Automatic annotation (TrEMBL):
Keyword Secreted belongs to the record: no
Listed EC numbers: 5.4.2.6
Molecular-function GO terms, alphabetical: beta-phosphoglucomutase activity
UniProt keyword annotation of Isomerase present: yes
Family: Belongs to the HAD-like hydrolase superfamily. CbbY/CbbZ/Gph/YieH family.
Protein name: Beta-phosphoglucomutase
Keywords: Isomerase
Highest taxon in the source lineage: Bacteria
Pfam family, one: Hydrolase
Length: 219
């Protein structure tokens, strides 16, 4: 029986991806690395340091910098990202999300956040929905990033629920893989080819409808 919903943040509740990807693209350019759209897209859902390592790999610069230099680059990117987050308001919640959260509350479901972002609490506060969630995974306490199942397993444990009692929502390929590896029901939001591992797919958050998703979960 359905008892909880687990949400990725970036690309699901709000489109902070444009700020993440913009800030990474600027940093890559400063390092003399030109990223293709596909390479940029592959950073969705990937943790901060893993994203930087991937960019350096794409630019064939994986052995060029010390750990201290890499941390400085990641901190620079984060400063630019946080400048954008500071400007966020409840208007930045993606269409359909408030209805989904309200329907879930009425239905008595528990809600959790499984975001790789260390900025999740600031973003949720800016969006005005921090108090809607019963649990938020602290990504600093995890050993492995998405696509490893750890983050979705942790969210489920924080809600004190079983894998067969939750539905999880993701916009990234690595995220869908993480949900499926955790044995949970995955709702993908985005491109059907990219998210083909999802159990239920919608092109955008506008099409999210709890009754329809729950019907698919129960079949
Ligand atoms: P931070 P999600 C992820 O959020 C983003 O999709 C990804 O682009 C970002 O690098 C990662 O969070 C870490 O974010 O630098 O703020 O800790 O999709 O898992 O909600
Ligand atoms: Mg995401």
């Amino acid at each position: 029986m359905l008892k909880g919903l687990i949400f990725d943040l970036d690309g699901v509740l709000t489109n902070s991806a444009i700020y993440h990807l913009g800030a990474w693209n600027n940093l890559a350019k400063e390092l003399g690395i030109s990223l293709t759209n596909q390479q940029l897209d592959s950073l969705r859902g990937i943790s901060r340091m893993d994203s930087l390592e991937l960019i350096l790999k794409y630019g064939h610069q994986e052995d060029k910098y010390s750990q201290a230099q890499k941390e400085k680059f990641a901190a620079e990117k984060n400063t630019k990202f946080v400048e954008q987050v500071e400007k966020m308001t409840p208007d930045d919640i993606l269409p359909g999300i408030m209805d989904l959260l309200n329907d879930a509350k009425e239905r008595g479901l528990s809600l959790a956040i499984a975001s790789a972002s260390k900025n999740a609490p600031i973003i949720l506060t800016k969006l005005g929905i921090m108090d809607e969630f019963d649990a938020i995974v602290d990504p600093a306490t995890l050993h492995h990033g998405k696509p490893d199942p750890e983050i979705y397993q942790r969210a489920q444990q924080l809600l004190d629920l079983g894998a067969d009692e939750v539905i999880s929502f993701e916009d990234a390929k690595a995220g869908i893989e993480s949900i499926k590896a955790a044995g949970q029901f995955a709702v993908g939001i985005g491109d059907k080819d990219l998210l083909k591992g999802a159990d239920y797919l919608v092109p955008t958050t506008k099409e999210l409808n709890l009754a329809k998703i729950e019907a698919a979960f129960n079949t």
